[in-house]
Amino acid sequence: MSVIVVEAGSHWRPPEFVQDTAWAYRNIYTEQGARSAVGNAVIPVPGGRGVGGSTLINSAICFRTPRKIMDDWAQNHGCWRLAPDPMRARLDRVWRELRVVVNPVIFQRNNNLIFKKGADALGLPGQWLARSAPGCVGCGVCYLGCPTGGKTSVDLTFLTVAIDTGRCVVHGDCRVAELDVQGDRVTAVRGAIVDPSTLQDAGRFDVRAKVFVLSAGPVRTPQLLLSNGLAESATCGAWLYLHPATGVLARFQQEIRPWSGVTQGFYVDRWEQGYLLQTYTSSPDQAYTGMPYSLGDELLELVADLRHTAMAGPLVHDEDSRGGVSLQGMTYFLGDGDRRKLLAGMRECARVFFAAGAISAYPGVAGGGPIASLGDIDRAIPDTLPARRIYLYASHPMGTCRMGADPTSSCVDPDGRVWGWANLHVADASVFPTSLGVNPQVTTMALGLTVAEAIQQTA
Question: Mean pLDDT over residues 314-325, rounded?
Protein backbone atom coordinates (compact mmCIF):
# COMPACT_ATOMS: atom_id res chain seq x y z
CA MET A 1 0.00 0.00 0.00
CA SER A 2 1.01 3.62 -0.48
CA VAL A 3 0.81 5.54 2.78
CA ILE A 4 0.72 9.24 3.67
CA VAL A 5 1.33 10.27 7.29
CA VAL A 6 0.26 13.75 8.38
CA GLU A 7 1.45 14.97 11.78
CA ALA A 8 0.63 18.21 13.58
CA GLY A 9 4.16 18.64 14.94
CA SER A 10 7.46 19.13 13.19
CA HIS A 11 10.08 16.65 12.06
CA TRP A 12 13.20 17.05 14.23
CA ARG A 13 16.71 15.71 13.87
CA PRO A 14 18.51 14.88 17.16
CA PRO A 15 20.99 17.81 16.96
CA GLU A 16 18.05 20.23 16.66
CA PHE A 17 16.71 19.46 20.15
CA VAL A 18 17.55 22.29 22.55
CA GLN A 19 18.20 21.23 26.13
CA ASP A 20 15.93 23.85 27.60
CA THR A 21 12.55 23.25 29.23
CA ALA A 22 10.86 26.33 27.77
CA TRP A 23 12.04 25.42 24.24
CA ALA A 24 10.85 21.83 24.64
CA TYR A 25 7.40 22.80 25.96
CA ARG A 26 6.85 25.14 23.05
CA ASN A 27 8.14 22.88 20.31
CA ILE A 28 7.74 19.19 21.21
CA TYR A 29 4.97 19.06 23.84
CA THR A 30 1.28 19.06 23.08
CA GLU A 31 -0.50 22.16 24.36
CA GLN A 32 2.98 23.50 25.14
CA GLY A 33 3.25 21.30 28.21
CA ALA A 34 0.08 22.62 29.86
CA ARG A 35 -2.29 19.70 29.20
CA SER A 36 -4.00 18.41 32.33
CA ALA A 37 -6.98 16.43 33.61
CA VAL A 38 -9.35 17.86 36.22
CA GLY A 39 -11.51 16.00 38.72
CA ASN A 40 -10.94 15.48 42.44
CA ALA A 41 -7.40 16.71 41.74
CA VAL A 42 -5.53 18.40 38.91
CA ILE A 43 -3.19 16.04 37.05
CA PRO A 44 -0.66 17.22 34.46
CA VAL A 45 -0.78 14.85 31.44
CA PRO A 46 2.14 15.67 29.14
CA GLY A 47 2.34 14.32 25.61
CA GLY A 48 4.68 14.65 22.66
CA ARG A 49 4.05 16.76 19.55
CA GLY A 50 6.14 15.98 16.53
CA VAL A 51 6.99 13.25 14.05
CA GLY A 52 7.54 10.41 16.50
CA GLY A 53 4.89 11.54 18.97
CA SER A 54 5.48 10.94 22.66
CA THR A 55 8.51 8.76 21.93
CA LEU A 56 10.32 12.07 21.39
CA ILE A 57 9.94 12.94 25.08
CA ASN A 58 9.46 9.66 26.94
CA SER A 59 12.08 7.90 29.04
CA ALA A 60 12.26 4.95 26.61
CA ILE A 61 10.99 2.42 29.17
CA CYS A 62 9.98 -0.90 27.61
CA PHE A 63 7.64 -3.52 29.04
CA ARG A 64 6.04 -6.34 27.11
CA THR A 65 2.26 -6.47 27.46
CA PRO A 66 1.53 -8.51 30.62
CA ARG A 67 0.02 -11.89 29.75
CA LYS A 68 -2.76 -11.36 32.29
CA ILE A 69 -3.79 -8.21 30.41
CA MET A 70 -3.73 -9.90 27.00
CA ASP A 71 -5.84 -12.78 28.32
CA ASP A 72 -8.38 -10.31 29.70
CA TRP A 73 -8.53 -8.32 26.45
CA ALA A 74 -9.05 -11.46 24.37
CA GLN A 75 -11.40 -13.36 26.67
CA ASN A 76 -13.48 -10.62 28.26
CA HIS A 77 -13.49 -7.96 25.52
CA GLY A 78 -13.50 -10.14 22.40
CA CYS A 79 -10.20 -8.74 21.09
CA TRP A 80 -8.96 -12.00 19.62
CA ARG A 81 -6.07 -10.35 17.78
CA LEU A 82 -4.68 -9.23 21.15
CA ALA A 83 -4.42 -12.74 22.61
CA PRO A 84 -0.91 -13.84 23.73
CA ASP A 85 -0.20 -16.11 20.76
CA PRO A 86 -0.85 -13.62 17.91
CA MET A 87 0.68 -10.77 19.93
CA ARG A 88 3.95 -12.57 20.59
CA ALA A 89 5.41 -12.03 17.11
CA ARG A 90 4.41 -8.35 17.10
CA LEU A 91 5.94 -7.72 20.52
CA ASP A 92 9.10 -9.50 19.38
CA ARG A 93 9.25 -7.28 16.30
CA VAL A 94 8.85 -4.11 18.36
CA TRP A 95 11.59 -5.29 20.74
CA ARG A 96 13.96 -5.91 17.82
CA GLU A 97 13.07 -2.71 15.96
CA LEU A 98 13.68 -0.57 19.05
CA ARG A 99 16.88 -2.48 19.88
CA VAL A 100 15.79 -2.67 23.52
CA VAL A 101 18.62 -2.97 26.03
CA VAL A 102 19.45 -2.54 29.70
CA ASN A 103 21.87 0.36 29.80
CA PRO A 104 25.32 -0.18 31.37
CA VAL A 105 25.74 0.70 35.03
CA ILE A 106 28.25 3.40 34.12
CA PHE A 107 25.42 5.41 32.54
CA GLN A 108 22.84 4.76 35.33
CA ARG A 109 24.64 7.00 37.83
CA ASN A 110 23.69 7.80 41.38
CA ASN A 111 19.96 8.52 41.19
CA ASN A 112 19.33 4.98 39.98
CA LEU A 113 22.13 3.35 41.96
CA ILE A 114 21.03 4.77 45.31
CA PHE A 115 17.47 3.50 44.88
CA LYS A 116 18.80 0.09 43.88
CA LYS A 117 20.93 0.08 47.02
CA GLY A 118 17.87 0.64 49.21
CA ALA A 119 15.70 -1.89 47.37
CA ASP A 120 18.44 -4.51 47.64
CA ALA A 121 18.83 -3.82 51.36
CA LEU A 122 15.10 -4.46 51.87
CA GLY A 123 15.06 -7.53 49.61
CA LEU A 124 12.57 -5.97 47.22
CA PRO A 125 12.14 -7.32 43.65
CA GLY A 126 14.04 -4.58 41.89
CA GLN A 127 15.42 -4.66 38.36
CA TRP A 128 17.13 -2.44 35.83
CA LEU A 129 14.62 -1.11 33.33
CA ALA A 130 14.76 -2.28 29.72
CA ARG A 131 14.85 0.76 27.45
CA SER A 132 14.65 1.65 23.77
CA ALA A 133 17.87 3.62 24.11
CA PRO A 134 20.76 1.45 22.93
CA GLY A 135 22.93 4.52 22.42
CA CYS A 136 22.14 6.19 25.75
CA VAL A 137 25.08 7.93 27.41
CA GLY A 138 23.20 9.05 30.52
CA CYS A 139 22.81 12.74 29.71
CA GLY A 140 19.48 12.71 31.59
CA VAL A 141 17.38 14.80 29.19
CA CYS A 142 15.11 12.25 27.48
CA TYR A 143 12.09 14.44 28.19
CA LEU A 144 13.64 17.35 26.25
CA GLY A 145 14.32 15.32 23.11
CA CYS A 146 17.34 13.02 22.81
CA PRO A 147 20.19 15.17 21.43
CA THR A 148 22.45 12.22 20.51
CA GLY A 149 19.96 9.97 18.69
CA GLY A 150 20.70 7.31 21.31
CA LYS A 151 16.98 6.76 21.89
CA THR A 152 15.22 4.76 19.17
CA SER A 153 12.10 6.89 18.91
CA VAL A 154 9.51 6.07 16.24
CA ASP A 155 10.81 8.67 13.81
CA LEU A 156 14.17 6.87 13.80
CA THR A 157 12.74 3.34 13.60
CA PHE A 158 9.31 2.36 12.27
CA LEU A 159 8.76 5.53 10.25
CA THR A 160 12.24 5.33 8.77
CA VAL A 161 11.61 1.70 7.76
CA ALA A 162 8.34 2.75 6.14
CA ILE A 163 9.89 5.68 4.28
CA ASP A 164 12.74 3.49 3.03
CA THR A 165 10.23 1.25 1.20
CA GLY A 166 9.51 4.14 -1.16
CA ARG A 167 5.78 3.76 -0.46
CA CYS A 168 5.42 6.08 2.53
CA VAL A 169 5.79 9.83 2.93
CA VAL A 170 5.55 11.79 6.18
CA HIS A 171 4.35 15.39 6.27
CA GLY A 172 5.00 17.33 9.47
CA ASP A 173 3.28 20.59 10.48
CA CYS A 174 -0.13 19.37 9.19
CA ARG A 175 -2.91 19.52 11.77
CA VAL A 176 -5.97 17.44 10.86
CA ALA A 177 -9.32 19.03 11.70
CA GLU A 178 -12.03 17.66 9.40
CA LEU A 179 -12.98 14.28 7.96
CA ASP A 180 -15.25 14.16 4.89
CA VAL A 181 -17.66 11.23 4.57
CA GLN A 182 -19.89 9.64 1.98
CA GLY A 183 -22.22 6.89 3.07
CA ASP A 184 -20.31 4.71 5.53
CA ARG A 185 -16.90 5.71 4.22
CA VAL A 186 -14.46 8.50 4.98
CA THR A 187 -13.31 10.08 1.71
CA ALA A 188 -10.81 12.76 2.81
CA VAL A 189 -9.14 14.47 5.73
CA ARG A 190 -8.58 18.21 5.77
CA GLY A 191 -6.71 20.58 7.99
CA ALA A 192 -4.22 23.39 8.41
CA ILE A 193 -0.59 23.61 7.46
CA VAL A 194 1.12 24.99 10.57
CA ASP A 195 3.92 27.53 10.53
CA PRO A 196 6.37 26.00 13.05
CA SER A 197 7.88 29.38 13.92
CA THR A 198 4.55 30.89 15.01
CA LEU A 199 2.35 27.78 15.47
CA GLN A 200 -0.28 29.65 13.44
CA ASP A 201 -2.17 28.35 10.40
CA ALA A 202 -0.27 29.05 7.18
CA GLY A 203 -2.34 27.19 4.60
CA ARG A 204 -4.67 24.27 4.00
CA PHE A 205 -4.28 20.64 2.91
CA ASP A 206 -6.52 17.72 2.10
CA VAL A 207 -5.75 14.03 1.62
CA ARG A 208 -7.93 11.50 -0.18
CA ALA A 209 -7.35 7.80 0.40
CA LYS A 210 -8.88 4.33 0.46
CA VAL A 211 -8.30 3.73 4.18
CA PHE A 212 -7.83 6.18 7.06
CA VAL A 213 -6.11 5.52 10.38
CA LEU A 214 -6.28 7.96 13.30
CA SER A 215 -3.21 7.85 15.54
CA ALA A 216 -3.59 11.19 17.29
CA GLY A 217 -3.38 9.75 20.80
CA PRO A 218 -5.94 9.02 23.53
CA VAL A 219 -6.92 12.70 23.83
CA ARG A 220 -6.95 14.06 20.29
CA THR A 221 -8.25 10.91 18.55
CA PRO A 222 -11.61 10.87 20.40
CA GLN A 223 -11.87 14.64 20.02
CA LEU A 224 -11.45 14.32 16.25
CA LEU A 225 -14.13 11.62 16.12
CA LEU A 226 -16.54 13.58 18.29
CA SER A 227 -16.02 16.93 16.58
CA ASN A 228 -16.72 15.34 13.20
CA GLY A 229 -19.78 13.42 14.39
CA LEU A 230 -18.17 10.03 13.68
CA ALA A 231 -18.79 8.51 17.11
CA GLU A 232 -21.02 8.93 20.15
CA SER A 233 -19.82 10.24 23.50
CA ALA A 234 -21.24 7.18 25.26
CA THR A 235 -18.48 5.05 23.74
CA CYS A 236 -15.95 7.59 22.44
CA GLY A 237 -13.91 9.50 25.00
CA ALA A 238 -15.07 7.28 27.85
CA TRP A 239 -12.82 4.95 29.90
CA LEU A 240 -9.79 7.22 30.18
CA TYR A 241 -6.94 5.59 32.11
CA LEU A 242 -3.82 7.49 33.15
CA HIS A 243 -1.49 5.45 35.42
CA PRO A 244 -1.43 8.28 37.99
CA ALA A 245 1.94 8.73 39.66
CA THR A 246 3.61 10.86 42.28
CA GLY A 247 7.10 11.38 43.64
CA VAL A 248 9.27 11.19 46.73
CA LEU A 249 12.52 13.12 47.07
CA ALA A 250 15.25 12.17 49.53
CA ARG A 251 18.38 13.98 50.71
CA PHE A 252 21.69 12.20 51.19
CA GLN A 253 25.10 13.11 52.55
CA GLN A 254 26.66 11.98 49.28
CA GLU A 255 26.23 13.84 46.02
CA ILE A 256 23.46 12.39 43.80
CA ARG A 257 23.09 14.95 40.97
CA PRO A 258 19.61 13.67 39.98
CA TRP A 259 19.72 15.42 36.60
CA SER A 260 22.58 13.15 35.54
CA GLY A 261 22.34 9.58 34.27
CA VAL A 262 19.63 7.40 32.73
CA THR A 263 16.38 9.27 33.35
CA GLN A 264 14.51 6.19 34.52
CA GLY A 265 16.74 3.19 34.97
CA PHE A 266 15.54 1.12 37.94
CA TYR A 267 12.19 -0.12 39.22
CA VAL A 268 10.62 -2.27 41.92
CA ASP A 269 7.90 -4.64 40.73
CA ARG A 270 4.78 -4.34 42.85
CA TRP A 271 2.42 -5.00 39.93
CA GLU A 272 0.36 -7.55 41.87
CA GLN A 273 -0.19 -4.90 44.55
CA GLY A 274 -1.32 -2.47 41.84
CA TYR A 275 1.73 -0.26 41.44
CA LEU A 276 5.35 -0.01 40.32
CA LEU A 277 8.11 2.04 41.93
CA GLN A 278 10.30 3.78 39.36
CA THR A 279 13.19 6.19 39.58
CA TYR A 280 12.96 9.42 37.62
CA THR A 281 15.12 12.45 37.03
CA SER A 282 14.31 16.09 36.61
CA SER A 283 16.19 19.22 35.66
CA PRO A 284 16.59 21.76 38.50
CA ASP A 285 14.00 24.13 37.04
CA GLN A 286 11.41 21.34 36.65
CA ALA A 287 12.19 20.01 40.12
CA TYR A 288 11.60 23.46 41.57
CA THR A 289 8.26 24.05 39.84
CA GLY A 290 7.05 20.55 40.69
CA MET A 291 7.77 20.59 44.42
CA PRO A 292 4.78 20.36 46.77
CA TYR A 293 5.95 23.15 49.07
CA SER A 294 5.15 26.83 49.21
CA LEU A 295 7.90 29.34 48.64
CA GLY A 296 9.91 29.67 51.85
CA ASP A 297 13.06 28.60 53.64
CA GLU A 298 12.19 24.90 53.45
CA LEU A 299 11.74 24.93 49.68
CA LEU A 300 14.76 27.12 49.02
CA GLU A 301 16.95 24.95 51.23
CA LEU A 302 15.92 21.81 49.35
CA VAL A 303 16.46 23.40 45.95
CA ALA A 304 19.84 24.77 47.01
CA ASP A 305 20.87 21.24 48.00
CA LEU A 306 19.36 19.51 44.95
CA ARG A 307 22.68 17.91 44.06
CA HIS A 308 22.27 15.71 47.17
CA THR A 309 18.67 14.74 46.31
CA ALA A 310 17.36 11.48 44.80
CA MET A 311 13.99 10.98 43.10
CA ALA A 312 11.58 8.05 42.72
CA GLY A 313 7.87 7.42 42.94
CA PRO A 314 4.96 5.02 42.50
CA LEU A 315 2.90 4.54 39.33
CA VAL A 316 -0.46 2.87 39.91
CA HIS A 317 -2.37 0.47 37.70
CA ASP A 318 -5.58 2.52 37.81
CA GLU A 319 -8.37 0.12 38.67
CA ASP A 320 -11.11 2.13 40.38
CA SER A 321 -10.38 5.60 39.00
CA ARG A 322 -12.65 7.02 36.30
CA GLY A 323 -11.95 9.50 33.55
CA GLY A 324 -13.03 10.70 30.15
CA VAL A 325 -12.22 12.97 27.21
CA SER A 326 -14.67 15.44 25.68
CA LEU A 327 -14.33 18.41 23.35
CA GLN A 328 -13.80 20.50 26.48
CA GLY A 329 -10.82 18.47 27.76
CA MET A 330 -10.06 15.67 30.19
CA THR A 331 -11.72 14.70 33.46
CA TYR A 332 -10.26 12.18 35.90
CA PHE A 333 -11.32 11.17 39.38
CA LEU A 334 -8.77 9.24 41.40
CA GLY A 335 -10.53 6.25 42.98
CA ASP A 336 -10.18 5.47 46.67
CA GLY A 337 -8.39 2.19 46.01
CA ASP A 338 -5.92 3.80 43.63
CA ARG A 339 -5.40 6.65 46.09
CA ARG A 340 -4.47 4.16 48.80
CA LYS A 341 -2.08 2.35 46.45
CA LEU A 342 -0.34 5.62 45.62
CA LEU A 343 0.08 6.35 49.31
CA ALA A 344 1.37 2.83 49.96
CA GLY A 345 3.85 3.29 47.12
CA MET A 346 5.01 6.63 48.55
CA ARG A 347 5.60 5.04 51.95
CA GLU A 348 7.55 2.21 50.36
CA CYS A 349 9.67 4.68 48.34
CA ALA A 350 10.53 6.51 51.55
CA ARG A 351 11.52 3.23 53.24
CA VAL A 352 13.76 2.37 50.29
CA PHE A 353 15.49 5.74 50.53
CA PHE A 354 16.08 5.43 54.27
CA ALA A 355 17.42 1.91 53.76
CA ALA A 356 19.88 3.47 51.29
CA GLY A 357 21.05 5.99 53.90
CA ALA A 358 18.84 9.04 53.33
CA ILE A 359 18.94 11.75 56.00
CA SER A 360 15.41 12.96 55.14
CA ALA A 361 12.61 12.34 52.65
CA TYR A 362 10.11 14.70 51.04
CA PRO A 363 6.82 13.11 49.90
CA GLY A 364 4.67 14.61 47.14
CA VAL A 365 2.09 15.86 49.64
CA ALA A 366 0.82 19.43 49.52
CA GLY A 367 1.21 21.13 52.88
CA GLY A 368 3.42 18.35 54.19
CA GLY A 369 6.98 18.54 55.34
CA PRO A 370 10.17 16.54 55.39
CA ILE A 371 10.27 13.08 56.95
CA ALA A 372 13.17 12.95 59.38
CA SER A 373 13.29 9.24 60.14
CA LEU A 374 11.94 5.82 59.22
CA GLY A 375 9.50 5.95 62.13
CA ASP A 376 7.86 9.13 60.83
CA ILE A 377 6.78 7.72 57.45
CA ASP A 378 3.30 6.50 58.41
CA ARG A 379 2.52 9.76 60.19
CA ALA A 380 3.66 11.88 57.24
CA ILE A 381 1.86 9.78 54.60
CA PRO A 382 -1.36 8.51 56.24
CA ASP A 383 -4.07 6.62 54.37
CA THR A 384 -6.46 9.50 55.08
CA LEU A 385 -4.75 11.96 52.73
CA PRO A 386 -7.30 13.09 50.11
CA ALA A 387 -6.51 13.09 46.40
CA ARG A 388 -6.34 16.89 46.27
CA ARG A 389 -3.30 16.90 48.60
CA ILE A 390 -1.27 14.43 46.52
CA TYR A 391 0.96 15.95 43.85
CA LEU A 392 -0.10 13.85 40.89
CA TYR A 393 1.37 13.33 37.44
CA ALA A 394 0.39 11.07 34.56
CA SER A 395 2.01 10.55 31.16
CA HIS A 396 0.21 7.40 29.98
CA PRO A 397 -3.32 8.26 28.78
CA MET A 398 -5.08 5.15 27.45
CA GLY A 399 -8.43 3.66 26.60
CA THR A 400 -10.65 6.47 25.31
CA CYS A 401 -11.56 4.62 22.06
CA ARG A 402 -11.50 1.15 23.54
CA MET A 403 -11.48 -1.93 21.34
CA GLY A 404 -14.13 -4.60 21.81
CA ALA A 405 -16.60 -6.97 20.24
CA ASP A 406 -19.71 -5.13 21.50
CA PRO A 407 -20.50 -1.74 19.89
CA THR A 408 -22.44 -0.68 22.98
CA SER A 409 -19.33 -0.87 25.17
CA SER A 410 -16.50 -0.09 22.74
CA CYS A 411 -15.58 2.49 20.11
CA VAL A 412 -13.66 0.30 17.67
CA ASP A 413 -14.11 -3.35 16.68
CA PRO A 414 -11.46 -6.09 17.09
CA ASP A 415 -9.87 -4.96 13.80
CA GLY A 416 -9.47 -1.40 15.12
CA ARG A 417 -12.25 -0.15 12.81
CA VAL A 418 -14.53 2.56 14.23
CA TRP A 419 -18.01 1.08 14.60
CA GLY A 420 -20.29 2.18 11.78
CA TRP A 421 -17.52 3.12 9.35
CA ALA A 422 -16.12 0.86 6.66
CA ASN A 423 -12.64 2.37 6.25
CA LEU A 424 -11.83 4.36 9.41
CA HIS A 425 -9.46 2.77 11.94
CA VAL A 426 -7.72 3.84 15.14
CA ALA A 427 -4.19 2.71 16.02
CA ASP A 428 -2.89 4.27 19.23
CA ALA A 429 -3.15 3.74 22.98
CA SER A 430 -6.75 4.94 22.96
CA VAL A 431 -7.86 1.47 21.80
CA PHE A 432 -6.60 -0.27 24.98
CA PRO A 433 -9.67 -2.02 26.42
CA THR A 434 -8.41 -1.47 30.00
CA SER A 435 -5.53 0.06 31.86
CA LEU A 436 -2.23 -1.64 31.05
CA GLY A 437 -0.43 -1.29 34.38
CA VAL A 438 3.05 -0.79 32.87
CA ASN A 439 4.68 1.80 30.62
CA PRO A 440 2.73 1.50 27.34
CA GLN A 441 4.97 2.33 24.37
CA VAL A 442 5.77 -1.28 23.36
CA THR A 443 2.11 -2.31 23.59
CA THR A 444 1.06 0.80 21.63
CA MET A 445 3.44 -0.06 18.80
CA ALA A 446 2.35 -3.71 18.80
CA LEU A 447 -1.26 -2.53 18.53
CA GLY A 448 -0.25 -0.41 15.55
CA LEU A 449 1.09 -3.56 13.88
CA THR A 450 -2.11 -5.38 14.85
CA VAL A 451 -4.37 -2.82 13.19
CA ALA A 452 -2.09 -2.70 10.13
CA GLU A 453 -2.38 -6.47 9.81
CA ALA A 454 -6.16 -6.24 10.01
CA ILE A 455 -6.24 -3.53 7.33
CA GLN A 456 -3.99 -5.58 5.07
CA GLN A 457 -6.33 -8.56 5.41
CA THR A 458 -9.64 -6.71 5.01
CA ALA A 459 -9.08 -3.53 2.98
Answer: 96
